[in-house]
Design goal:
8 helices, mainly alpha, three-stranded mixed sheet, 3 strands
């Protein structure tokens, strides 16, 4: 069955007709909600892009002029976030394209591919900065001026504000990508705090504490490496079709079982693809039902799930008799459906 376009819909707002198929209004509402979801996530990504570009430029200029390698390393962090945001924006645009003959499941995997490529790029850049920080440890250089502290302090505040903004939107829209990006801002806030502490030690400790600037740079590198490695793992998991979180899978199963003619769920696989999910579900039905009746129930459950869960893009339904007699089940044990 060709996958239909998935949209976000509030639980209970959809409407089904006789055979369990969605009405035209419900389908239109899903399309509008899906577009609204992407618009909100794109707006948050654009804000992060603009802020990171400004911070990156300010920290790079301040680090080069003020002779602070810690600020330079933190600038690499912010500019890496700019590249990440650009890749995510491109991927989100691509992900909204409808399925075609070459891509019958749509283009939602673009986000994971972009995330994997960018995280590897950021990881490599961080390692280069780390090597340079080690090289500079024994070298003498000028004490950074006091205004570099102001740049570092402002960076801490701005990153924390971005974290709170994106975590709120990410949780409301169900965007795991935006939630992960929010926690990246929190990590950036901590790395900026390390830079602030390092610069403070150099300013008030004098030339004997110049090593603190490079140590702060190494702390930033460690945070970047950890964040990039985490993104590599998450993107790889998505590309390998890892099972979705257990709580989400359980909710889908409970919703399917709420149909009075569904006697059980034998198999339920749910995989993440960009901002959305695909599900494969095996429903256990009364074996005395006709093919036409089973087909109608399958469509009814599918539409019920698509209307109930905002991030579920498509559901592939397979029907099993209960008990289905694959040779490993005990006979009986199936509830009697209500008339």
């Amino acid at each position: 069955m060709r996958p239909r376009a998935k949209v976000v819909a509030d639980r209970g707002r959809g409407e089904l007709i006789g055979g369990g198929r969605m009405t035209r209004d419900a389908t239109r509402g899903r399309e509008q909600s899906r577009a609204a979801l992407y618009r909100e996530v794109v707006a948050a990504a654009l804000l992060g892009l603009a802020v990171n570009a400004g911070l990156g430029a300010a920290k790079l200029a301040g680090g080069l002029i003020g002779h602070s390698f810690a600020l330079v390393s933190d600038a690499v962090n912010s500019l890496g976030d700019v590249v990440t945001s650009l890749a995510v924006l491109f991927a989100l645009r691509l992900a909204q394209r409808p399925p075609d003959r070459e891509h019958p499941y749509g283009h939602t995997r673009a986000e994971a591919i972009a995330g994997l490529a960018v995280s590897l790029l950021v990881l490599g850049s961080a390692l280069l900065v780390g090597v340079e920080a080690f090289r500079r440890l024994p070298l003498a250089h000028e004490v950074p001026p006091g205004w570099t502290l102001a740049i570092a302090g402002a960076n801490v505040v701005i990153k924390e504000v971005l974290f709170r903004y994106k975590i709120r939107i990410g949780r409301r829209t169900g965007s795991s990508a935006l939630v992960a990006n929010a926690w990246d801002h929190r990590a950036d806030a901590f790395s900026a705090l390390a830079v602030l502490i390092g610069l403070g030690m150099v300013r008030w400790g004098g030339p004997s504490y110049l090593f603190a600037d490079e140590l702060a740079a190494l702390v930033v590198v460690a945070i970047i490496v950890r964040s990039a490695a985490s993104l590599v793992w998450e993107s790889a998991q998505e590309l390998m079709d890892a099972q979705a979180e257990g709580a989400f899978v359980s909710l889908i199963e409970a919703e399917a079982l709420a149909d009075p003619q569904v006697l059980g769920v034998e198999t339920l696989w749910v995989r993440k693809s960009g901002l959305e999910y695909f599900a494969d579900i095996h429903l256990e039905l009364d074996p005395s039902l006709t093919i036409a009746e089973g087909h109608r129930i399958g469509h009814r459950v599918k539409d019920r799930l698509l209307l109930a869960f905002p991030t579920l893009r498509d559901v592939l339904v397979h029907l099993e008799p209960c008990p289905h007699g694959h040779g490993h089940e005990e006979p009986g044990g199936c509830p009697i459906p209500e008339d």
